[in-house]
Design brief:
single chain; mainly alpha; 2 helices; elongated
Length: about 70
């Protein structure tokens, strides 16, 4: 006789494991706030100042490129 047959169902330990799929944590993204521009946020003076800076910066960059090319 097998010893496990003498034991009642309650006394027998279950050794079978169930296949458990671990849960993954889902990253929750926060909403991004985009500030609204109003007419006062960008003045015409700022725009003119930026365009002057941009022109001078491009001029300086092109001069340095030409100077580097002439040295070669």
């Amino acid at each position: 006789m097998d010893s496990s047959q003498n034991l009642s169902n309650k006394e027998v330990e279950k050794t079978e494991k169930k296949a458990v799929i671990p849960l993954r944590r889902v990253k929750q993204e926060k909403a991004v706030k985009i500030p609204q521009l109003n007419d006062d946020s960008i003045s015409s003076e700022d725009c003119e100042h930026h365009s002057l800076w941009e022109k001078s910066h491009l001029f300086q960059t092109s001069r340095s490129l030409h100077a580097d090319a002439s040295l070669s």
